[in-house]
Protein backbone atom coordinates (compact mmCIF):
# COMPACT_ATOMS: atom_id res chain seq x y z
CA UNK A 1 0.00 0.00 0.00
CA UNK A 2 1.62 3.30 -1.02
CA UNK A 3 1.84 6.00 1.61
CA UNK A 4 0.14 9.30 0.86
CA UNK A 5 -1.49 10.07 4.24
CA UNK A 6 -0.62 13.47 5.66
CA UNK A 7 1.63 14.34 2.72
CA UNK A 8 -1.50 14.88 0.56
CA UNK A 9 -2.92 17.30 3.13
CA UNK A 10 0.40 19.15 3.29
CA UNK A 11 0.35 19.54 -0.49
CA UNK A 12 -3.18 20.98 -0.33
CA UNK A 13 -2.18 23.61 2.27
CA UNK A 14 1.36 24.17 1.00
CA UNK A 15 1.19 27.98 0.80
CA UNK A 16 -0.38 28.38 4.25
CA UNK A 17 2.32 26.18 5.82
CA UNK A 18 5.25 28.28 4.63
CA UNK A 19 7.23 29.51 7.64
CA UNK A 20 5.37 27.21 10.05
CA UNK A 21 6.48 24.37 12.30
CA UNK A 22 4.58 21.19 11.42
CA UNK A 23 4.37 18.61 14.19
CA UNK A 24 3.85 15.11 12.80
CA UNK A 25 2.15 12.96 15.43
CA UNK A 26 1.22 10.08 13.13
CA UNK A 27 1.92 6.37 13.31
CA UNK A 28 1.66 5.36 9.63
CA UNK A 29 0.75 1.71 10.17
CA UNK A 30 -1.06 -0.77 7.98
CA UNK A 31 -4.74 -1.46 8.71
CA UNK A 32 -3.84 -4.79 10.29
CA UNK A 33 -1.06 -3.15 12.39
CA UNK A 34 1.62 -5.48 11.02
CA UNK A 35 3.92 -2.86 9.57
CA UNK A 36 4.53 0.69 8.43
CA UNK A 37 3.08 1.96 5.15
CA UNK A 38 5.76 4.51 4.36
CA UNK A 39 8.31 4.01 1.57
CA UNK A 40 11.36 1.95 2.54
CA UNK A 41 14.02 4.14 4.13
CA UNK A 42 11.57 6.97 4.81
CA UNK A 43 8.98 8.03 7.37
CA UNK A 44 5.69 9.92 7.41
CA UNK A 45 7.56 12.94 8.77
CA UNK A 46 10.10 12.81 5.95
CA UNK A 47 7.36 12.45 3.35
CA UNK A 48 5.56 15.45 4.86
CA UNK A 49 8.82 17.43 4.76
CA UNK A 50 9.25 16.54 1.08
CA UNK A 51 5.83 18.03 0.30
CA UNK A 52 6.13 21.04 2.59
CA UNK A 53 7.38 24.44 1.45
CA UNK A 54 11.08 25.17 2.01
CA UNK A 55 10.24 27.59 4.84
CA UNK A 56 8.28 24.99 6.83
CA UNK A 57 10.00 22.75 9.40
CA UNK A 58 8.74 19.28 10.30
CA UNK A 59 9.16 17.88 13.80
CA UNK A 60 8.22 14.30 14.67
CA UNK A 61 6.71 14.21 18.17
CA UNK A 62 3.95 12.70 20.32
CA UNK A 63 3.54 9.50 18.26
CA UNK A 64 4.70 7.32 21.17
CA UNK A 65 2.25 8.86 23.68
CA UNK A 66 -1.23 7.35 23.70
CA UNK A 67 -4.43 9.07 24.83
CA UNK A 68 -5.07 7.02 28.00
CA UNK A 69 -1.62 7.67 29.44
CA UNK A 70 -1.86 11.37 28.53
CA UNK A 71 -5.26 11.59 30.23
CA UNK A 72 -3.79 10.10 33.40
CA UNK A 73 -1.20 12.88 33.53
CA UNK A 74 2.22 12.85 35.07
CA UNK A 75 5.70 13.64 33.81
CA UNK A 76 5.83 11.67 30.55
CA UNK A 77 8.72 11.55 28.10
CA UNK A 78 8.05 12.88 24.60
CA UNK A 79 10.59 11.99 21.91
CA UNK A 80 11.25 14.49 19.13
CA UNK A 81 13.18 14.40 15.87
CA UNK A 82 13.83 17.28 13.48
CA UNK A 83 16.53 18.87 11.38
CA UNK A 84 15.91 22.50 12.35
CA UNK A 85 17.26 23.46 15.82
CA UNK A 86 14.84 26.38 16.23
CA UNK A 87 11.84 24.20 15.40
CA UNK A 88 13.07 21.61 17.92
CA UNK A 89 13.43 24.30 20.57
CA UNK A 90 9.92 25.64 19.92
CA UNK A 91 8.36 22.17 20.08
CA UNK A 92 10.39 21.32 23.20
CA UNK A 93 9.07 24.47 24.89
CA UNK A 94 5.53 23.49 23.90
CA UNK A 95 6.04 19.96 25.25
CA UNK A 96 7.35 21.33 28.55
CA UNK A 97 4.33 23.67 28.79
CA UNK A 98 2.17 20.53 28.79
CA UNK A 99 4.10 19.12 31.75
CA UNK A 100 5.93 16.59 29.61
CA UNK A 101 9.68 16.02 29.26
CA UNK A 102 11.08 16.42 25.73
CA UNK A 103 13.88 14.14 24.56
CA UNK A 104 15.70 15.01 21.34
CA UNK A 105 16.59 11.82 19.45
CA UNK A 106 18.32 13.53 16.52
CA UNK A 107 17.56 14.64 12.99
CA UNK A 108 14.40 13.99 11.02
CA UNK A 109 15.88 10.71 9.75
CA UNK A 110 15.21 9.40 13.29
CA UNK A 111 11.46 9.75 12.64
CA UNK A 112 11.71 6.31 10.99
CA UNK A 113 12.84 4.88 14.32
CA UNK A 114 10.15 6.75 16.27
CA UNK A 115 7.48 5.40 13.90
CA UNK A 116 8.81 1.87 14.35
CA UNK A 117 8.75 2.48 18.10
CA UNK A 118 5.12 3.62 17.81
CA UNK A 119 4.30 0.38 15.97
CA UNK A 120 6.07 -1.65 18.67
CA UNK A 121 4.11 0.14 21.42
CA UNK A 122 0.85 -0.57 19.58
CA UNK A 123 1.83 -4.25 19.44
CA UNK A 124 2.70 -4.20 23.13
CA UNK A 125 -0.61 -2.52 24.00
CA UNK A 126 -2.60 -5.07 21.99
CA UNK A 127 -0.67 -8.21 22.87
CA UNK A 128 1.45 -7.85 25.99
CA UNK A 129 0.24 -5.02 28.18
CA UNK A 130 -3.42 -5.34 27.20
CA UNK A 131 -3.90 -1.56 27.45
CA UNK A 132 -2.91 1.65 25.71
CA UNK A 133 -2.30 3.17 29.15
CA UNK A 134 1.45 2.62 28.71
CA UNK A 135 4.47 4.83 28.04
CA UNK A 136 8.23 4.60 27.73
CA UNK A 137 10.32 6.40 30.30
CA UNK A 138 13.94 7.42 30.02
CA UNK A 139 15.80 6.86 33.27
CA UNK A 140 18.78 9.18 33.34
CA UNK A 141 20.94 8.32 36.32
Molecular structure report:
It is globular, with a radius of gyration of 15 Å. The chain has a four-stranded mixed beta sheet, with helices on both faces. The longest helix has 18 residues, at 111-128. The chain has a single domain, classed as NAD(P)-binding Rossmann-like Domain (Rossmann fold), CATH 3.40.50. Helix 1 (5-12) packs parallel to helix 3. The protein is built from six helices and four strands; from the N terminus they run ααβαβαβαβα. Strand 3, helix 5 and strand 4 (101-104) form a beta-alpha-beta unit. Helix content is 40%, strand content 13%. The chain is of the alpha/beta class. The model has no long low-confidence stretch (mean pLDDT 93).
What percentage of the residues does DSSP assign to strands (E)? 5-15%
Number of helices: 6
Distance between the termini: 43 Å
User: What is the level-2 CATH architecture name?
Assistant: 3-Layer(aba) Sandwich
Q: What string gives the helices and strands in order?
A: HHEHEHEHEH
Rounded radius of gyration (Å): 15 Å
InterPro entries: NAD(P)-bd_dom_sf, STEAP_metalloreductase
Protein name: Dinucleotide-binding enzyme
Amino acid sequence: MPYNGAAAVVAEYRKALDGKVIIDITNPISPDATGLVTPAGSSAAQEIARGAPVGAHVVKAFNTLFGPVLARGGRLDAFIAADDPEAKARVSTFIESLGLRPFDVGGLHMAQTLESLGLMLIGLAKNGAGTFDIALKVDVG
